[in-house]
Task: structure prediction
Amino acid sequence: MTESPSLKDLNPEQREAVLHTSGPLLVLAGAGSGKTRVITHRIARLVESGADPRGIVAVTFTNKAAEEMRSRAQRLMGGRVAIGFIGTFHSWSLRFLRRNAAAAGISPRFSIADSADQLALVKEAMGELGVSETMLPAGSVRARISHAKNALVTVESFEAASNDFAGERIGKVYRLYERKLAAAGALDFDDLIVRAVRLLTSREDVRNLERRRTRHLLIDEYQDTNTCQDALVKLLGEGADSLCAVGDEDQAIYRWRGAEVEHILHFDQDFPAAKIVALERNYRSTEKILESASALVSHNRRRRPKRLRAERGGGSRVRLWRFDEDRSEAEAVARDVGASGRAPSEIAILYRTNAQSRGFEEELVRRRIPYVVVGGMKFYDRAEVKDALAYLRLAARPEDDLAFRRVVNVPARGLGSATLDRIAEASRQTGRSWWEVSGEPLAGLTDRARQGISRFRAIVTDLHEKAESWSPSALLEHLLDASGYAALYENSDEREDVARRENLQELLSSAREFERRNEEGAGVSEYLDAVSLATDADAVPLSGGAVTLSTLHAAKGLEFPSVYVVGLEEGYLPHGNSGDDPDELEEERRLLYVGMTRAGDQLTLTLAGRRLVYGKVQYRSPSRFLDEIPSEALEERVESGDRSSAAAYAPRFGGSRPARFEAIEPEDEPQEAPLGRGRRVRHPRYGYGVILAQEGSGEDTRLTVYFDRAGKKKFVARYADLTPA
DNA sequence: CTGCTTCACCTTTTT
DNA sequence: GGTGAAGCAG
Result:
């Protein structure tokens, strides 16, 4: 008898998890233990054994994970099976709310406020309430509100629970913020799940219907669920034929977003009938790597004790490299990447904060090693992309105040703050949208402003008429022209304008790609929904061979034969803002654990004795976590290029002497001339220009520069205040 | 009203 | 080092 595909290539524990298809199941999946395999095989098994595929709902945290799950499950089932849902918590909630908008008491066409919109609304609310931002930064107020929502704390209960001055203020802002969101007809990210939970809780009929639709529920990364998401899991899971939660408390890294490890630690108390399966065979890393990582994380208290076993034995020791300064760190890593003989795609450089990527990027560029940065500056966060999408949002729904505000004067139509304040005031007083208010005669406007408004309204009216029947890409292309937006950046060689045009082209391709993938029902509204929940991690093309640069957070779920975890210093790991809170310290430790366990064959940890932070030199000491990794598993190397200071701060590294002391030879490489032919430069008086010619060298270098506005000028390089642009 | 310059503040991590 | 807000000249 041949084995069914769903049970092939599984170890006994994995098989057990796949076969337990009724009632609640908790899979404790250690790093590299085949978690995704279990989930996908389980889906295949359910279908194989006769479950209705439309009743299967699988929820993850990222679109990327969902995509991976979908494709692997489909491959396993050998074709197209219509699974009920595979996607993120947010996208599940969004669909649910669109379906049940009436019951939820919201417009079915609500828009989604992104984090920039949220911040703008918070600032606006604080301004109106006279809450000073010096005492309470808008960003932290936004975070507090978000936290409250994720913990299912309403405005009322928030106000009731806050007696201190700051808390009272925040409560007021929270209240006004909610009103403003509602007035704009928008929900924020957190609302999506909160409102879904509220609706399921308050309406028995809706809940029962949804439970009938959801027969088998699978939750990935369960350790990262916050109170609200956990509530959703329970509301749906309690009525389902099976509920499978997969997670690993050692990889819980989203506490700051309201996630609570307790959910996974207490799963068997919440579901007393739950079966628990532990996956403890690691197929990814060699023994030394796993040993180091396990030793580190064993210092945490809030976890179930476990022992991960490396199925792949041996391997080389973990390399620990210490440098004088950040530049040498970046240089040595880039050089090693180039000399490793591995394909770039097999390598990842992981860091604690996004800002750390720059140094490595520069060094990789210098060596012409291709790389991709995960996250960082998000494509959909670019101003021009958001502007274009704002027009598209207006096309779908002119009453979208947030979008209206964003582009009513882009390109400039003579509408300054005076005019916008009038519209805002009229909207506030009548409780109607900016769009409606702007269509009526407003007192005290200049002729110029009137004209500007009517031109803008004509554009939006035209777009709105086309929104129903036109495809997203066609409408985007049209609106860029019709709004005069494209003209803003046309005919310019300015580096940034070129980049803007490219980004807009990229947006068009993304819309076309969307249409290709969703042949039916791929209208403007659907496209906007997809874009609202998209993140850059999804947009990154998996281009052939490139080194991956990523934060430790964004690296979860990935694996690479060779991994560099950089910046192992106090201040980064643990991060300076974690303070002495033991819970936060544990989270930082888990973060490093996640980074280390991404590595298959080789793991390199690096740190620097001093580095530039915000352009200022900072002296740094090694991460305390290094003391928690057994030194037998480490192979140390110290760079002492900087003789004058090496002795001075060598003791900073403290503790045991490095096993091996070996200077890394400084490499002779031609420094790229800071100012050469073709470089773009900036002059304090003449603005931007490009270097046409260079004569002489050293102190006598003379440069001929062609300025965009001032024309041709000649300088002695030494005296001219030219900066690379 | 617009576009440019200066200045403060910043960054932990993201759906 | 970079970005957004505020302040200023045209």
In short: Chain A is about 45% helix and 15% strand. Chain A has a mean pLDDT of 84. Residues 355, 358, 612-615 of chain A lie near DNA strand C (CB under 10 Å from a C1'). The radius of gyration of chain A is 28 Å.
